[in-house]
Description:
Number of strands: 4
Mean pLDDT: 95
Strand order of the largest sheet: 2-3-1-4
CATH class: Alpha Beta
Order of helices and strands: EHEEHE
Strand content: 35-45%
Radius of gyration: 13 Å
Structural class: alpha+beta
Helix content: 25-40%
CATH architecture: 2-Layer Sandwich
Number of domains: 1
Amino acid sequence: MHVAALQFELRIPGAQSIKDKRAVLRPFVEALKKVASVSVAEIDHHDHWQRATVGVALVAPDGAQLARLIEKVKRFADQRIDLEVLECSAGYLEP
């Protein structure tokens, strides 16, 4: 079993309120769960309108599949037009 955690620092430029932020972030989180079968949660910047930190947990049976899954998640986030990925960091749990 191979495990990784991604942390995305996001900017939501169109948000003018927490409600606007949630209107962008909620569909992003739900779509990411469906697209990649991962666990996702907002983990920081809860009270900032245009910022969010999202954590993603990924599990795969081997390293190659984990690498493909990580790239899939990163690509999905980068393709969003309603938010900007400021930074993405990864941490790995040794098998």
